[in-house]
Design brief:
Elements: H1 16-47, H2 63-92, E1 100-107, E2 110-114, E3 120-122, E4 124-128, E5 132-139, E6 144-148, E7 153-157, E8 163-168, E9 173-179, E10 191-197, H3 199-217, H4 220-230, E11 256-261, E12 264-269, H5 272-280, E13 286-287, H6 303-314
The protein binds copper (II) ion (CU).
Amino acid sequence: MIWMLNLFPKITSSYGKEVDNVFWFIFWISLIFFLIVQVAMFYFIFKYRNRREEEVSDIEGNNLLEITWTVIPTIILIVIFFYGVYVFDNFQRRPPANAIEIKAYAYQWWWQFEYPNGYKIRDTLIVPVNKPIKLIMTSNDVIHSFYVRNFRIKEDLVPGRYTWTWFKATEPGIYDIQCAEYCGTLHSKMIGYVKVISLEEYNAWLASLSKEMDLSALSPVERGAKIFQNKGCSACHSVDGSRMVGPTFKGLYGRDAEVVVGGKEERIKSDENYIRESILNPNAKIVKGYPAIMPSYQGQLSEDEILSLIEYIKTLK
Ligand SMILES: [Cu+2]
């Protein structure tokens, strides 16, 4: 049975059905005409087989017949053309404006996807269900073709040029990506996957990624600078020596700090532990001449974030 070959895997994209409809439309027309031609051919082979006793008549032609078999196929081809263009133009080339844009790169012989936050992932495209996804694609070497049968989409990736396609997955699951353009030795192994998950899972995954990225992509000092902005420290602390609500971070590390501990003035050396304590328990030692209004960041910063902040402060000399 041909169905066992799974030539028509389940449609799991928004406009896959439209693509199939065009296919079946063309398929049935072709089949019908194939049968008409074949039946007529065998009939004529039999009817006009060589029988020596008969004299062959001289047939000049038949205008009506020729016009008929020219005009009817022409009309059918025009219908096929416009139906195809209609589906292509109204579905395949119409990504919704709110589509999530993901970049796709092809290499001999693998895929790479780059998310809006800069994260790159190899061979597996992870997308949320029921959200339009637009792929901006290019190739790093030869022409490849991004083909997901379940979605009924196929688009070439061409070196030196951007192409795009879009889809909206309608069902969670894992679907094959195949390269549909012969691209060298391992062309047939150039298989990737689209993993379709719920929007919540997708957002959680993206959030965990950004965390991982922060940890891996940035140096502690860069991360510290980011936290300084993101956690609001910059609202009360300057890094250029100017006095704001709180003391400046410039020269903070290593200086002799005058602090008030339990009403008594003390001189201490500002080191890692002092800065750490000032962040987690600001009222333990209050900087002389400043109000005790800094909120505690206990539970709001992880250990590595605190250390990153300290690394950042150390650079502010
Ligand atoms: Cu390829």
